[in-house]
Design a protein that fits this description.
The protein folds into 3 domains: 1-47, Up-down Bundle (Monooxygenase), CATH 1.20.1280; 49-180, Nucleotidyltransferase, domain 5; 207-282, no CATH class. The strands form 2 sheets. Strands 1, 2, 3, 4, 5, 6, 7, 8, 9, 10, 11 and 12 form a 12-stranded mixed β-sheet that branches. Strands 13-14 form a two-stranded antiparallel sheet. It is 29% helix and 27% strand. The protein has helices at residues 9-17, 21-28, 32-40, 98-112, 137-149, 166-172, 197-200, 203-207, 240-252; strands at 53-59, 62-70, 73-80, 83-86, 89-92, 119-124, 157-162, 182-186, 193-195, 210-218, 230-235, 260-263, 265-267, 270-272. Helix 5 packs parallel to helix 6 (166-172). The chain has 282 residues and is of the alpha/beta class. This is F-box domain-containing protein. Residues 1-54 form the F-box domain.
Length: 282
């Protein structure tokens, strides 16, 4: 008697098309034949997971995914000590390859995502993972995976929290600029300073509607932020000419619904803040 895996490929494709994301992942773990068949399927033949938000965190010697389908439906997958926990089940993989398991799962999750995400969030904490994998290798592996995915991730908001600027470009360049509306960049300890001139050259930056930077920005060319309808930037210093430019910019740009540049002047424990509102008033 023929086994289910010996059924015609067209029949198996129809079966998988009727399953949801979790059911296909479960089927993928049944045997090597199912895993290979599902992994080789064209993305268009996989069901849409329809996630609203995907959150990837490397923190406290572990990696975790937060998958939000709706406000009332939330799934968490965690990886630590060489094991993966998902839907009440734990699998053991060994310390040496748990990072590879997590990245491979992230690739599978993104393959299932057909609709545009509301938010894609990454947090890269300064920790060392089990098996000797340093935290800076996590965004590198993610970047390699996104390149292998061979299509940009569609999300309206991209949020990256890190104390190392390198993951920002490694992730940003693989986000679909046509879908991206808001870029949120922040430091986990509030102390990071970063040069953003390279980010400003990307299509993602140029086509986004809003930018919010929760760290001190260096080498800022004010012309690179004039197209944003919502902008929050922290600077260490600013010239009188630049303040005058900011004052006039909202008046010149018709779609400038809100614009805010924060200037933090540190004098001991004292902070002074300047803002430019949508009416060009400083």
């Amino acid at each position: 008697m023929a086994t289910i895996i010996e059924m015609p490929e067209l029949v198996l494709e129809k079966v998988i098309a009727f399953l949801d994301f979790k059911a296909v992942l479960t089927l993928r773990q049944v045997c090597h034949d199912f895993r290979n068949f599902i992994d080789d399927l064209n993305d268009s033949k996989l069901p849409d997971s329809k996630f609203q938000e995907i959150k990837f965190v490397s923190d406290d010697r572990r990696i975790s995914f937060g998958l939000e389908e709706s406000k009332k439906r939330f799934t968490c997958i965690s990886y630590s000590k060489g094991q993966r926990s998902f839907c009440g089940k734990t699998e053991f993989f060994g310390y040496s390859n748990i990072l590879n398991v997590a990245v491979r799962d992230m690739e599978m999750i993104l393959k299932f995502q057909k609709t545009i995400l509301e938010r894609l969030q990454f947090e890269f904490h300064n920790v060392q993972l089990y098996g000797g994998s340093l935290v800076h290798t996590v965004p590198i592996k993610l970047s390699n995976m996104l390149q292998k995915l061979n299509r940009n991730v569609k999300t309206r908001t991209l949020s990256i929290k890190t104390n190392d600027p390198s993951p920002i470009m490694q992730i940003l360049r693989f986000v679909d600029p046509g879908a991206l509306k808001t870029i949120e960049l922040s430091s986990l300890d509030g102390k990071m300073e970063i040069e953003i001139d390279e980010f400003a050259k990307t299509e993602q930056w140029k086509k986004a509607d809003g930018i919010h930077c929760g760290f001190n920005v260096l080498n800022l060319n004010l012309e690179d932020i004039c197209h944003f309808s919502s902008c929050s930037i922290t600077l260490n210093s600013i010239t009188a000419q630049e303040l005058d430019f900011l004052r006039k910019t909202p008046q010149k740009t018709s779609d400038f619904s809100f614009f805010c540049v924060v200037l933090s002047l540190l004098h001991g424990l004292k902070n002074d803040f300047w803002t430019v509102d949508r009416y060009g008033k400083c």
